[in-house]
Amino acid sequence: MWILPISMLVITTLLAIPLSRYMTRIMDGKYKVPRFLGWFEQRLNSGPQNWKQYTASLLIFNTVLFVFGFVVLALQPRMPLNPQHKGLLAPTTIFHTVVSFMTNTDVQHYSGDVHFSNFTQIFFAFTMFFLSASIGFCALTMIIRALRSDSSVGNFFVDMWRVVVYMFLPICFVTAILFLQQGSPMTFKSFRQVSTLEPAAMGTLENGQPNPQTIVVGPVAAFVPIKQLGTNGGGFYGMNSAHPFENPTAFTNFLSCVAMMLFPFGLVLMFGRMLNRLKHAWLIFGVMMFFMVGTVVWAIYFDTLKPNPGLTAHPIARTYEVFNADAAGGKQAVILPAVAGLPVDQHLGNLEGKEMRFGTSAGATFAALTVDVTDGAVNAEHDSLNPIAGLSPYAGMWLNCFFGGKGVGMINMLLFVVIGIFVAGQMVGRTPEYLGKKIGSREMKLAMIALLVHPIMILLPTGLFAGTSWGMKAESNPGAHGFSQILYQFSSSSANNGSAFDGLGVAYGFNDNPNPAPMARQWDIASGLVILISRFLPIIAPMAMAAFLGAKKSSPFGLGTLRDDTSTFAFLLVGTIVIIGALLFLPVAALGPLAEHWGPLPFGG
Amino acid sequence: MAHNISKSVLLLVFTVVIACGIYPGAVWLVGHLFFRFQAEGSLLKGPDGQVVGSKLIAQPFTKDEYFQPRPSAASYNASASASSTLAPSNYLLRNRVATMLGPIVKYRGGLRAGQLVAPDIETWFQQDRYQGNPSIVAQWADLHNGLAAAWIGADTSHGSYVDSWAKAHQAIVADWVKANPSTPQPKASDLAVVFFETFSKENPGRFPSAVTKTGADGKPQTSIEPVKDGSDIQPTFFDMWRQDHPDSDLQDVPGDMVTTSGSGLDPHITIENAEFQLDRVAAKWAADTKSDPAKTRNEIEQILQVNASAPFGGLAGEKMVNVLEVNLELRKRYGALN
To answer: In chain A, how long is the greatest CA-to-CA distance?
Structure first.
């Protein structure tokens, strides 16, 4: 039960230590490469940049990436490797998918096995996976260089090349071989039709012949490693890492978890090494780990150690007071009779939406980890998690800094650090300082912009969609859970996470689909805009903040300086995160998962 | 600006070559040379040498001779994986599980230990009282509007049955339209609840179900008729029966047997699930091969034990078996089905 998550966290930490050393060497340019690789680097190098030039390069490159992605998706019907003649996706879905993949979000309003040809999987997804993951990485590197007042913050294109070629590529290759050995397919064929052992059980075709089983295959073994190592999380198949080809054994599940945590862990330590503040980085690492362990324990406790409450007995009749203008006193009592349980053995916890082969607590563990590091792959159906266990993925997305996405998570944590220090400075009446630099009003404004974009981009559209038919016609579950589905979609979009409550009707499908989900267009556009805003503002504002901080003169370390490597500081940081998180998100948590947990269950009929 | 764009394009081109060409090409080569079986999708061959499916992908089995996989929200369609996406609070989840349980649940304790509850459900249904009130079917439709409407959509014959009912009960339909002025031309599914209410009054202790009879021309004909027992009553009304008998001591059914997996293609079942099916499977094979039931049961139990394995040698999970592999083993041992 607990061995699985504990060993995952310990092994990843142990791997992250040497990795962070390697990462520091690469990003500081202290490495030697064969001459031909150096030639590529030379071609890309446009010279030392300042923070504005670096940011401009980042934005322009994203624009180019957007155009590229859009073209690849739009050309799907005309391209090779498409024997099933998969057609053109709806234009809004193309927009949403491109935005979602280029920002490392990978919320999917389509199913890979249904809607993508192998050409699209390779040229769209592989490219986006490698590059979008590197962008966050580079943003953090730039911030670190700015904070240590380097004369130049480096060159964006060289940094991207370093991350893609010297970090992701070798690790991906090794991981891919392991996935291959365990059973992930690796072929450029698209599907295989088989007549099953009991052919009639698949149903019959119109001509009376038994229906063959069509098994979609493809370059899955190469797909999954970069999906996980880049914390992308978009699935080759609709059901992502729950699919037996994307995650064939308990070992690959373990590997998937280690792979998605590896770089987020390593980046925190790289932050410390590059700044020469390793103790401070370990402290941040500890705070992040504290929250991560919390979300994992929460998920396992409420999902693996508790049965699915929809099937169990509720022996005591419950009374709810609901608003009713016609009743006396404006309130009406609704009585729910006691419910007898169904005879189902649930000692393995809630098994709805879980796979058997990963191990008992693997579904809950994966659910917590995938949101903590904003990977977004899933190995179980999050819609079917026990309601209160669902709080764990929400918390990971809302606070978005329990290691968080590649680079971006550390950047988010930096914002909490700055705000924590500012609050502490206010309390003792001293000018707050971070790394010896005075935090002024301009820096605080930038930090606040970056921090507040996220809750605004979750709460505003959730309110809009929950109050209108845009959301109500998309919900697939009744009551509080319907609201949870809307909330989850925007939380996942804004956190650049990518996991989903899959029941929500957001898929338009192919452009000629006669029966798309009724509100699919609205969802494509709204979710796409949320993703864009919540990706770029929280990267750019901290980049500016770091540049302004770095440009200041360092003040000498004195008796009154708030030390950033003590347990006091750790408590301050934890407190800041908990208070800000609770103030922003407790009300919606009460309307969604908490209401479902304490409300009538089962609900409706 | 132009400088940035040209470098961006260059970076993109380099990455496309590496990420979409060299990297997958190299992995493909390794797979092709060393892991051909896995790279092609872990395909297994059947008794006649034909490929029967992938070891990793669940496929449906319905015959009693075979172990059956977990239910699939994707209908075992390996080109469109799907989960049920049913929240625990959604009644449809409870209903789906109850529907599966009705025909297979047995008493655990008491005088009738080991016997199916299904006959008792039918007896209780025919008495037509739920929670002390008459008309089970009417109460069922009132409690679960969605299920009543879903029944009408489940088969075209259901819809036409309600249509002909509506023609014969025009006064009731007119009353319904008066109460629901926004739907002046109600479809069959709109009338679900009022249909079942009237049906229950006119046919106490009965439920509309498909009945196949030999017609005048000697061919079987299927029509919808009120029935008092059979394969619709046991699943549909198990949950209500349970509410009327909360203290009955029932045997638990393994959880993975009645829950759908995340992908809809989970190829494994727990060993408890397999043991639960063992009696059925063994009895059927013993009858098919005319051999000693106890011996057959022992042999099949052996097959299960040999094929069972747990994640990380049991460190992280329960013992389970691969359904297709076990069924292939049965075919190898006992030959083709009758």
So the answer is: 86
